[in-house]
Amino acid sequence: MATAFRATSTGYRADLAAHERRVISSLCGDVIQFLESRDDAPVEPEAPQQEAGQDPEQGGAEVTGSTTHSGASDDADPVAQAEHSGGMDPSTFAHFSAELAGLDTPGEVLPPQDPALRRLLPDGSADPEEASQLRRLSESSLRASKAADLRLARMALESSPVALSEEQAPAFGRALNDVRLVLSVRLGIESQEDADALHDRVTRSRGSRKDAHASDSGQGPSSRSGTDDFMAEIYTFITWLQESLFQAMVDFLPEDTGPGEADDEGDAVR
Fold this sequence. Notes:
By secondary structure, the protein is mainly alpha-helical. The chain has a domain at 6-39 and 147-252. It has helices spanning 18-36, 78-85, 94-99, 115-120, 128-156, 168-186, 192-215, 223-252, 259-269, and strands at residues 6-8, 11-14, 43-44, 62-64, 67-69, 108-109, 162-164. A hairpin with a 2-residue loop joins strand 4 (62-64) and strand 5 (67-69). Mean pLDDT is 77; it is low at 60-80, 88-102 and 265-270.
């Protein structure tokens, strides 16, 4: 039987059964694939614009004397300059390359059509044009960050008990939250009232199953009902597990020292 997360001398720990760890890990893997499906995000292309000094017959390539090039010369590429000069490690630019990857994408990146993916990758603004621009600039790094959290969670779930360091705990909690977001869309949860109603339904379902086992009626639920009930059980379980982790993290925080106590301690030292 699963136990809630609790603080330890090295971080946080929870005891989960093997099948519980397998289910959560599998869902984390599904969400990773879900996020990676946006690698080929639909783009609304912009109309090409001819700039001065470009030959339209050569696809917009610049013509400079006897040399034709596309403008992507080594002179304009700091990474290429570093490689050729040997003066700076190109890995210095790796972080900036990841953050600015969306700059090379022409046109507007369209939002996800799947509501679950859109909840994972929401619009950054109510204004459609601004939201599209923000999505083009930041969605790639956001997806990478979420996938990294989910992979960390899968690694942590390979061991029993599940042990997290103080640095790993926030990422594990974020991964659980992303799994919950996907499940909540599939279950039609749009508000806290919906979540409370689902929790009540799961509680009643558990009681009904106990009664069914006792009476041994032999009449099982429909396939659709069984799938929804299973998702609801998993959603409720992951919600409880995430809340227990966050509560353990809050309990582990040092208590604030009041102004009066600080003054008294200072007087004692002096």
